[in-house]
Specification:
The complex is a heterodimer of chains A (235) and B (287). With 235 residues, chain A is an alpha/beta fold. Helix content of chain A is 34%, strand content 25%. The model of chain A has no long low-confidence stretch (mean pLDDT 92). Chain B is globular. The termini of chain B are far apart. In chain B, a hairpin with a 2-residue loop joins strand 1 and strand 2. Chain B has a single domain, classed as ABC transporter involved in vitamin B12 uptake, BtuC (Orthogonal Bundle), CATH 1.10.3470. The chains are: A alpha/beta (235), B mainly alpha (287). Bound molecules: adenosine-5'-diphosphate (ADP) and magnesium ion.
Chain lengths: 235, 287
């Protein structure tokens, strides 16, 4: 078992009085790709936001490289090497495509990713680099969102429903690019509604249900009916 | 001839109003904060300029070298120490706190400098003028206008061509996602307020050289700045300059008709433009 890069310990998250996550224990090893699946509202986005520092948690509930980062601010966590590709892309509308990428590299961490390598990965972005990000198609915007996260040269990258609302052909393009992204020692957590997509690119998975982990296991050997049970919460 | 003169004077006056407005606009743009104390901060800068000229015996324009960094530093501390804690989904707390700050500044200035009107002397610069056809253009108003153009041009350049400007725009677009990029919004807001008050320092000193000032005049400067921002269109820096010029010209033309009508003409023009173009003349295209 390789070293654990990130782990959560009885992670709880709240929106005001509403509790969205209950005592979640999840771990990602160095170089590992972990899928997070679950129905709408299960708490997948909340989990990623907690890890990235956008939801408040208690310090020791998130451990990363031996540090307790649960209470750190999102900008501190970014400097530590965790990047989030947020649900719904959320590009900066006032910034051009290239500026969106450049600001992703704000942390100035060293690594293989820079403007050139992102443009190599998604050549269409180079053609559109001067455009406002709002003028791109959904798929191209998703490429910018992924490129923006890569520009930080993270050790752990969190993908939140990168295929949401995109045409199948675009989803295919983006998923074909994934191995090239995750290949070089990068660890990833992938949230997807499309279970088979998520399982096909990951080695392990967690299935969330109403803020709790309902099932966890090996992505390649898990039985589909077990997932259906955990997913829908039916017995 | 009087009319042309009034228009030219109004345009130049508009430069000063644009300087009042630029800092206000910057703060609103980056953090959606309406700084009620903005006018009083302008007056504070004028008094700091006055003290600097007296203590160091320097020309008011040179005093800027002292007052600009002082105001900028004060702005950063004010933002990190006080204003950041008031920002949130609710617009009311920052309004109340900056209103309180406005009262505090006015009273502190009254204590420190009394209510007597003051003025900074700029020596020969005050009376120097350039002939332009039959008109005579004051060098000081011309210089004020030139500084306004430089400041607004510089701000525009900073906004669209520097890392800091990119950070300002990103935080303005989406604070959470900007944090994910490693930007600490509290620090960015501090820098924005520092920059805003640096501009305020310039505006305050130019104001204090041009006219008498006393601790009570901040409110009207806030309104002029506010009107210039709204006329020009929120979020558009060059629009703010145009807004300042329109306000200035409206005031000088009003005064030309009847000396008592100066301020009224400015306000009426503002209300008229607000009624016809609620988003101002040049609202920013995106967002
Ligand atoms: N900003 C919010 N305020 C209040 N409740 C929220 C907020 N965001 C999400 N929730 C609630 O938290 C739960 C988990 O949401 P989320 O993490 O977005 O789920 P998922 O990403 O799995 O669809 C849902 O019940 C949702 O309604
Ligand atoms: Mg979600």
């Amino acid at each position: 078992m390789p070293d654990t890069l990130l782990s959560t310990h009885q992670l709880c998250a709240f929106y005001g009085d509403f509790q969205a996550l209950y005592d979640l224990d999840i771990s990602v090893a160095a170089g590992e790709v972990v899928a997070i699946i679950g129905a709408n509202g299960a708490g997948k986005t909340t989990l990623l936001r907690s890890i990235a520092g956008l939801c408040e948690n208690e310090s020791q509930q998130v451990q990363y490289r031996g540090m307790s980062i649960g209470a750190q601010r999102a900008d501190q966590i970014a400097f530590n090497g965790i990047a989030l590709v947020p649900e719904g892309r959320q590009l900066f509308p006032s910034l051009s495509v290239e500026e969106n990428l450049i600001i992703g590299g704000q942390t100035k961490r060293h690594g293989p990713w820079n403007l050139q390598s992102v443009y190599q990965l998604f050549p269409i972005l180079q053609e559109r680099r001067q455009m406002p990000s709002t003028q791109l198609s959904g798929g191209q915007q998703q490429m910018v969102a992924i490129g923006r996260a890569l520009m930080a040269n993270p050790d752990l990258i969190l993908f939140d429903e990168i295929s949401l609302g995109l045409a199948p052909v675009i989803i295919k393009t983006i998923y074909e690019a994934l191995p090239g992204i995750i290949g070089e020692g990068l660890s990833a957590m992938i949230v997807e509604q499309d279970i088979s997509k998520a399982l096909s690119v990951s080695s392990r998975f967690y299935c969330l249900q109403e803020g709790r982990s309902a099932l966890a296991g090996d992505s390649q050997t898990v039985a589909r009916e077990d997932i259906s049970k955990a997913y829908f919460g039916v017995d | 001839m009087n009319w042309i003169n009034a228009i030219v004077q109004g345009i130049l006056l508009g430069g000063l109003y644009a300087l009042f407005a630029a800092g206000l606009s910057l703060i609103f743009g980056v953090m959606r904060l309406v700084n009620i104390a903005h006018g009083d901060l302008i007056v504070l800068a004028a008094y700091l300029g006055l003290s600097t000229t007296i203590m160091l015996g320097v020309h008011p324009l040179l005093a800027m070298l002292v007052v600009i960094p002082l105001m900028a530093l004060g702005g950063y501390v004010l933002q990190r120490g006080v204003l950041n804690h008031t920002l949130g989904d609710d617009l009311l707390p920052p309004l109340l706190v900056t209103f309180g700050l406005s009262v505090i500044i006015q009273n502190a200035l009254l204590e420190g400098y009394t209510a007597d009107p003051q003025k900074m002397s700029a020596g020969a610069l005050e009376t120097a003028s350039l002939p332009l056809g039959d008109l005579s253009i004051g060098v000081l108003p011309l210089l004020t206008f030139a500084i306004a153009v430089l400041v607004i041009g510089g701000l525009h350049w900073m906004f669209y061509h520097t890392a800091l400007g990119r950070a300002f725009r990103a935080v303005s677009d989406n604070q959470d996602i900007a944090q994910l990029m490693g930007l600490n919004r509290r620090h960015i807001f501090g820098l924005a307020m520092a920059l805003s008050l640096a501009i305020t320092a310039v505006a305050g000193i130019l104001l204090g050289v041009r006219t008498n000032f006393d601790p009570s005049i901040g409110g009207a400067r806030l309104i002029f700045g506010f009107e210039a921002v709204i006329i020009g269109g929120l979020g558009n820096l060059w629009g703010t300059l145009v807004g300042g010029v329109i306000l200035g010209v409206a005031q000088t033309i009003g005064a030309q008709i009847n000396p008592g009508w100066q301020l009224l003409a400015g306000h009426i023009t503002f209300l008229f433009i607000l009624a016809v173009r609620p988003r101002g003349l040049f609202p920013r295209m995106t967002g």
